[in-house]
Amino acid sequence: MYEEFELEDPAARRRAAIAAEKDRLARDRERRESRGLTAVSGFLRRKWGWLGVDGDDAVTAVHGILDELSRSDGLAEEPRAVLRAAAAGTPDREALLPAVRAALESVTPEEVLAQIRSLWKAEIPWLTAAGAERCRVICSSAPSLLLVSGRSRGVSGGPAFSLFAAAATQGAVPVPTRHLPDILRWAPMPALDDLVDHGGLLPEDTPWERRDKDEALYLRARLAPETISSEEAATLEWADYLRREAFLNGARLERLEPVDVWDLLYDVVADGDVTRINELDTLLPRTQQIQLRDIRSGAVNGEWPRETVVDSGLWLLMASLWQPQQSVNPQLSSFHALVALNRAYDLLKAGRLEQAAKQAERFEKGATGRRADAGIRQEALTIRAYVAAVEGNLDTAETHARTAVGFGEQAAPNVALVRSWKATPKNRRDRATNPFIELGLDHGSFRWEKHCRELFRQAEGDHALQAWINEAEERIRAAQGGDAGFSVFFRIPLEPERYLMPDTVPTTLVPPVKGLARRTPSLSGEQLEQIRARAAVELLDDLRTTPPRLDRHGQRA
Question: Which residues pair with 556 in a beta bridge?
Fold first, then answer.
């Protein structure tokens, strides 16, 4: 066999074709020399002329072809005798062509291809007009040029010829649908991958039904990835599928270098890192890219389509992008309620008590939409109770705290604390402020000492502010050493996890499963020759049964 060459390398294809032609010419020369033929007599030329064989070279070539065919194993004696007589110079005009076909049917596809090439080279017209056009493509050293832009562009044929045309053009020429069932069982996988790459093989063709187990799984992963299970993806070692599954299951991903779309989805959506949102935008498919841009544009004023707002897996990203400067209506959606609660709490820790109270009030009045969840309303009431207590309105604080108890007993200690303040003379009463909240920390935060040191250092030169920090620090330290602990402070939040964005996987922004990327190499020269040989066998149906008709001048009619 000739050395393999890569299909996409025209120079390699040409070298292989030249090598094949040189071998054929060498064999022809050896046959002529071994038979001692020097010239063809006029009488012999005339006999062969009636069979369409014109010229000394053509007669010599046909003698060699018929001599080889007469030696074929498995050939019946009658056609063998016809071939031997013709090779010796006595062709039977009626019986020769049927005998040639019988002989070609008894040899391998590779031998058929070799003899067809010899007939074509010698310009022996034993094929029909349609067969001659197909033969031109099959015997060409550059069939892709003929099929794509040459005179053979519209030539069609049987299953093997159709696959040869597709393989020679790397899938640019499709295989007719009617021929797919015939070629799917034996076509080399690179040829099928060429068809997949060019859309010539579709899921509805179900090619996996005609291949072995491993090839069937590979083809199904390429054409119908949605039918692949996690176990099958693991068998294929399909990293992208498995990483998608891990993301959808909320599992931690092993980061890649460079990062892929799943790393960035985790950073942006799961962690709320909006600094990487542009990187994610460049890697997302078009549909998900549009979704991401809609989310970003909605963050300008906090308005998104309903299908976006109900996807709780997007809330952290949406909250990270949206920094509301005005009061948020918590009755628009569960997401808006959570943002409103966090805004009120952030304002509280920033010392902007009046604005925090106004934001918290919107959970109970000022709108006619749906009410927030009970837990979030309880937290909002607790914020209102705390602000009222700090401002000295203990009756209002008690009212809000009691209402909060109606949503859960978590608020009961605050009611008791407010009542104890009311029962204590004002000049002996503890301060109502929670020092953790004053310092901008969550209630009971273990970071309070480090945080106080950082604030004290930042307040260098501001003695009043440093004294205030020291006072808050001393209050925390005193409570820590007491029997009651931090329960001496107004507790807010009641349940910190209520303030957190849901840790759920989004249904939006997640790209669909893409077909498995191609894993086979380009079609090799050896594989292309195997397909070419099968296509040559199909030409046997185009062999004439009688010689071409000649006119009175000896020309083919």
Answer: 550
Distances from the Cα of 208 to the Cα of 173, 195, 514, angstroms: 21, 14, 18
Residue type, 38: T
Q: 28 CB contacts (<8 Å, ≥6 apart)?
A: 60, 61, 64, 118
In a domain, 43, yes or no: yes
Distance CA 106, CA 75 (A): 6
Question: pLDDT tier at 366 (50, 70, 90 boundaries)?
Answer: low
Residue 495, domain extent: 284-433+490-515
Distances (CA, A) of 194 to 236, 389, 511: 20, 75, 25
Distance from C-alpha of 537 to C-alpha of 160, rounded to nearest angstrom? 9
**Distance (Å, rounded) from C-alpha 239 to C-alpha 513?**
12
Helix axes 109-121, 56-70, angle to 10 degrees: 160
| Cβ atoms 13, 86 nearer than 8 A | no
Q: Among 50-54, 168-172, 299-303, 335-339, where is mean pLDDT lowest?
A: 50-54
Phi, psi (5° rounding) for residue 556?
Answer: -70, 130
Residue 244: inside a domain, yes or no?
no
Residues 127 and 112 sit within 8 Å (Cβ to Cβ): no
Give SS3 for 38. Answer: coil
Provide the domain count of the chain: 4
Does the pLDDT of residue 4 top 50, yes or no?
A: no
* Same domain for 232 and 112: no
Whether residue 258 is preceded by a cis peptide bond, meaning omega within 30 degrees of 0, is yes
pLDDT beyond 50 at 211: yes
Residues 462 and 502 in one domain: no
pTM: 0.77
Examine the domain organization and report whether 499 and 483 are in the same domain.
no
Q: Residue 223: is its pLDDT beyond 70? A: yes
Contact 340, 363 (CB under 8 A): yes
The answer as to whether 74 is a domain residue is: yes
Neighbours of 428 (CB within 10 A): 6
SS3 524: strand
Q: If DSSP codes are grouped into helix, strand and coil, which group holds residue 127?
A: strand
